[in-house]
Amino acid sequence: MVKSIKDGPDVLYIDRHYIHEVTSPQAFNGLKERGIQVFRPGKTLATADHNIPTKNQHLQIREELSRNQVERLSENCKKYGIELFGLNHPKNGIVHVIGPELGYTLPGMTIVCGDSHTSTHGAFGTIAFGIGTSEVEMVLATQCILQPKPKKMRITLNGELHNGVTSKDIIMYIISKISASGATGYFVEYCGSAIKSLSMEARMTICNMSIEMGARGGLIAPDESTFEYLKKLPSIPGINDLSSSINEWKELRSDTDAIFESELKFDAGLIKPMITYGTNPGMGMAVDDSIPISDEKDKEGSSSFLKSLDYMGFKPGMKLLGHPVDYVFLGSCTNGRIEDFRAFAQIIRGRKKANNITALIVPGSKKVEEQMVAEGLIEIYKNAGFEVRQPGCSSCLAMNEDKIPQGKYAVSTSNRNFEGRQGPGARTLLASPLTAAAAAITGKITDPREFITEENKIKK
Amino acid sequence: MPKVKFDIFESTCVPLPYENVDTDQIIPARFLSATSRQGFGDNLFRDWRYTKTGEKNGEFVLNNPAYNGKVLVAGKNFGSGSSREHAVWAIFDYGFRAVVSSFFADIFMNNALNNGLLPIVISDDLLKKLLGLVQKNPDTKVRIDLENQTFMILSTGDAVKFGINSYKKECLLKGLDDIDFLLSMKSSITSYENNKSIVK
Prior knowledge:
Low-confidence stretches of chain A: none
CATH topology of chain B: Aconitase, domain 4
Order of helices and strands of chain B: EHHEHEHEHEEEHHH
Distance between the termini of chain A: 36 Å
Number of domains of chain A: 3
CATH topology of the largest domain in chain A: Aconitase, domain 3
Strand content of chain B: 15-25%
CATH class of the largest domain in chain A: Alpha Beta
CATH architecture of the largest domain in chain A: 2-Layer Sandwich
Number of domains of chain B: 1
Helix content of chain B: 25-40%
Strand order of the largest sheet of chain B: 4-3-2-1-5-6-7
Shape of chain B: globular
CATH superfamily of chain B: Aconitase, domain 4
Largest sheet of chain A: 5 strands, parallel
Number of helices of chain B: 8
Oligomer: heterodimer
Radius of gyration of chain A: 21 Å
């Protein structure tokens, strides 16, 4: 923190700033109007991810406005001296996938990006959160933003996860318990033995969806898993002596007497594979459960509840197992990492995609794509009838051509099931990569545990 | 961007009695491709405002000629989801100057304050009452006085004091901008960098 303003926000210094093509052009326009330069161009990293196509990336982008945005990003990065991993660059990918995998996200940093899923980076013990474009301009101009201090919430998850239950199910379970606004105004720390046992990829999935319960951000204290992940990276920009940095990062944890304004505890053993049935991420349930009769958390909100079910084409009390599905989307900053593609592959291996399913299989980055090739995953997908696309945000927000048509049902590993999120009239059912894979094989909503035997344990 | 000063005003209201209105509803992602801040008002609440075939949806409140005004009154947890500032630009561009709800998402709240759109938090009970009044009588007016932080329903005299941090209040009243403030702090920022920054 640079300075505290009386009765106002604090001036917070930003160690790492990520930008992309959609929320940055107006910020650069602002700099131009003021006639000022980017203050610390070396601390901003850019990628094109939100609106890019996931097929034929070597060709010119067909959609004119999207092409214009991507070109503007390139121009701005060149003009102001910002490093850009743009379209077709070997390090291109979704901003929240490439930051960690390229070593730009490090413990203890303050990290912002004009994207609400910036909370992802909290998995490394960072203070990371999404900002608006005015704030992007502030960071470009001064490397600082003004932030009110958030309240602190601690979510402890102890107990053992069942087979077939992933970190996506953990976070969807928590959101279903506390609602889509249950953590608004808070910064969340996740801890407990079940969190500690997770890989870095799995932790990123949890921190990623912190925003879906309204939290500014979510973080997990760095530990051996964090350091092992960092040690395996080919290089870390700006770090020459990793072991001495690790010694410093070991000190990054909440004080034992830290006060949390809110304290929640959950039992990992109670969590089953999850699915959403409504139009906000809080409307989730175990995949084998029935849709509630009314909004149990908020009787007053019943008109919103019924409006939501009506949009989805569901009725209160209905079971979703066996309900036909049209699309399956594997990817996004929530589930677009290598582990997610491995998990999906474990279910589809040796099986065939159902005929009624259109699948969008979109790696989170070029690096993930490369690794899929190296591990032979591409073959598994191909043999099961799945086409693997090129990296990007794709159908998560459907700014490109990867839209789910009107009225169609999509089991999606992304993060938002809002009305029209995946295309006008699209009906999104959020789930884990395992649940998505099970639906892709059977063509309907399926409990992924059906595909899991004692010999073939799938766990994340 | 420098803003106009926020003055006291009275206005009729536009009711949107839904909860959890996310920024994808306020401005769908497919309309985020512009590179300026203007013109987003045309697509405000696009998929509620227009039918699948592109005609105006007569049932949606923005298409009801009885309702207009500078104040949007919405159900709780307004502005959740994506951080897109385009949502605020769209609301402002359409002509709203304040949004009233019992609860706002954090990023939306910051974005609104950075663009001269005042988010006013009132109690669930008062929100329910206000929505009822406005739905019954579209001519129901409210008075918003930022200087004194008061929000009043004129016909009933219900008046409440709303919260806002004093720095942001001053920015809105004087039409000031965070960036000017931060630029004036460059020397503190540089000395902070020399002492503390993790990545040099």
